[in-house]
Design goal:
eight-stranded parallel β-sheet, 247 residues, TIM Barrel, alpha/beta, globular, metal ion binding
Length: 247
Amino acid sequence: MAVNEVDLRRWWSEGRVCHGLWSLLPGVVTAEVLARTGPDYVVVDLQHGAVSEAELPGVAAAIRSAGSVPLVRTRSPLFADVGRPLDLGACGVIVPNVRDADHAREVVAASRYAPAGGRSIGRLSGGADEPLVIAMVETSTALDDLDALLGVPGLDGIYVGPGDLSLSLGLDGADRVAELGGVLSSTIARAVAAGVPVGVHASTGEDAARHAAEGATIVTVAVDVFSVGEAMAHHLEVARSRSQDND
């Protein structure tokens, strides 16, 4: 069954878990292969991934035609960087480095046409009339202002970035893993209590399932570049070990 941004917004509001994939690799073929595996959404990462803006219309169309929702992690929270992928086919944005509630309001306004916001008319390809807007919580300031941030009108959810958040909180050491886990669990609980959809970035299905068990509904289960690398390494190991057994 094909999924669209209206479905995601409704399902999240109902507390339904939605599963997605994260893409760092470029190309329409990559996007189509990922979307054909059956995720509810595919996030194209413009901040750290290799996809260019010029590819985005084709990438977004491939994801949508395969039955999934194309979301984009924007390059930055700047006004132009929020609106640009929405003009090029994205049905929603996950915006990094959101500082606090006031900043989140600016992000929402950048995704909405007047009078609700300041987005300029000029959508070029695909996209959505009311795109999804998700703010990343990955700074200590966003965490400090979390209660107010969760109440920002027009925000469809929050998405926690454990890597940058651990750096911002000084919890990036191996001996602070448990403490960081407590912060992630607390953030999920606070969002759930406020009735706001929440996700925590994960690279494995096991981590994703753990977050979902705590109440996360924006559940990213894998990152393409890591999964491809792990799969290739596994098959090489199997082939080489069996070749050695036959020597």
